Amino acid sequence: MSHTLLRTKPIQTLLADTQDEHHSLKKSLRAVDLIAIGIGCIIGVGIFVLPGVQAAHNAGPGIILSFAIAAAACACSALCYAELAAMIPVAGSAYTYGYATLGEIFAWIIGWDLILEYMVAAILVSTGWSAYFVNMLSAGVGVHLPAAYTASPWDKTPGLFNLPAVAIVLLLTFLLVRGIKESSRVNLFIVILKIAVILFFILLTVWHVDPAKWSPFMPFGFTGVMTAAAIVFLAFVGFDAVSTTAEEAINPQRDMPIGIMGSLAVATVLYMAVSAIMTGVVPYQDLGVADPVALVLNRLDLPWASALVSVGAIAGITSVLLVLLMGQPRILFAMSRDQLLPPFLSNVHRRFKTPWVTTLITGGIVAVFAALTPIDVSSELCSIGTLFAFIIVCAGVLVLRYTRKDLPRPFRVPLFPVLPALGIVLCAYLMLSLPLVTWWRFLGWMVIGLLIYFLYSIRSSRLNQEGVAAAPEPK
Predict the structure, then answer these.
(1) 258, pLDDT greater than 90
(2) H-run or E-run covering 472
(3) How is residue 211 annotated by DSSP?
(4) Is 249 strand, coil or helix?
(5) Which of 32, 48, 272, 325 could lock 293 by a disulfide, CB 3.0 to 4.6 Å apart?
(6) Number of helical H runs and strand E runs in the chain
(7) Whether 431 contacts 443, CB under 8 Å
(8) What is the pTM of this model?
(9) Which domains does the chain show, CATH number per domain?
(10) What's the CA gap between 118 and 447, in Å, rounded?
(11) H or E segment at 170?
């Protein structure tokens, strides 16, 4: 039984799958598209909130250092993603890497975990988008949407269903079915708009920074800086979405590492810059509010600029939602192509060459839950799922380096094996710091997944059908 559970899918087979005319995706993404996909998922509305709130409660001006530490920790996992994505440019992200390195049972667990991660995140982001959109219409142009159609039946102020959330999910789903190139162009435009708004904020306020406000730099001590780093670490996750599109990259061996590390680098610079400005303009004690950017602009008597920041927030959330709805179907697609899920899910649209079945299913489920789910649904499930995926990827790099030294590696993680091992330790530490109830929900989802695996997937698996259980790859 263990022999079956730990069977790995040969990398040559994984690569051959991408050449199948009926089950392969169109290659059309360049390095700039991949960087934009990463930035699109990493930088959301959090850049306008997290620096101020964490400065007030945990780090003071040391929040600048907190973001640097979090980025360095995230880089350990990002480098591992870059190595595997360049070596195995196949849809599926951590699921595919787990299948190639650790075995089928690990691949299933991480694939099932990623389904939860992307789905819950998309539901939460779409309801958040709705709240910002309704507020912008109301405050900006005086248009008030009926309350019955802007809230779920279980919100604090109940409504019938959340129409704006449904509308944005269905619109982006339609775009994603049309084509990855079209979707990436829209994402690139939104990302440029989002970065332009952030740079506008920086250029508008940097002249008012008072370095004296950065003293004391660590009023809560280094412990406070590290606490903030653990929290803002999750502001960087999203670069893993780049790896879900590896099969659609024109030159994945070169561009996947650029996309993953480039998006992380841009996000780090912007997060640190916004943090420095917030704490340099307003005393850190005053930043513990829901809209610290608006507070900074009001202190500088620039209330008109808040409207532009609202545009940036809407753009930020839209690009995050687009990338989440882009990543989820490709994981389902990869699992279906391996027949761990029903084969019809891996059908590719004849004209658009997109995984249209899984895209429509994902969009439909997210739209229904976004319409009816209250906005305060717990988001810790996204965090635990992401961190678990990071651990699998770091472990995959360690295993492949020792078991398949012969494989060509266009990109190599530096300081091996220290960085992959450090990535595992840091992610495990952050997982253990999450609330116990999150673990129970996570384990409950895993139990459901394992039941499906042992009742269906283990027998229907392509490796099982082809009789190559745990067959070692040729050296």
Answers:
(1) yes
(2) none
(3) G
(4) strand
(5) 48
(6) 20, 0
(7) no
(8) 0.88
(9) 32-465 (1.20.1740.10)
(10) 18
(11) helix 163-178
